[in-house]
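Many introductory courses stop at the sequence. We go one step further.
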Amino acid sequence: MTLDFSLQEIFVGSLYAALMGAFFGFLYDWVRLIRLLLGTAYRGRFMKGLFAKHSAPIEEKVKAFKEKHRWYRAFLKWLDVFLDFLYCAFCGMCYAVFLYAVNCGIFRFAFILGTFLGFFLYRKTIGRVFFFLLRELAAFFYLIFHYIVVIFKKLIFRPLKWIFSRIFFPFYRKLLLLFHKKYVIMKKNKED
């Protein structure tokens, strides 16, 4: 069985490969966003737009937490490796299916060149705008989540802390601790 392809079919396959490369670039932007949100790849400031002034204290807390906890840095390294593995495995499977569908499984250099060209053009054109918008949207939700946590601490955690310190713990010390001491004494008497 011979596979004869015309230049037109190779050109159309290369265009499809370029679209697939742009899709791979789109997926890689999401992987980059996950890395930025978790603090894996801090190079400079995470939030660089409308929310940069409000987010500086939050970023300092994340950096301090990362520097303080060695286990978090190890987790980030393994997560980075895992995300890279998933991304490469998914792209490899997509490319294998693409080659099978377009070219009956035969590798052509024009298709790999089209994929790299599509990835490169996406990253240098619309990918920059998309990642900027994605990062700003993530920064907005990051700030909202931070303020929800602050409000939760002020409106719910502090009153609960007051209730436990003023009502529950005195009750525990007076009544329940008395029963606990009697139970411990009874248990020691049985063991002797």
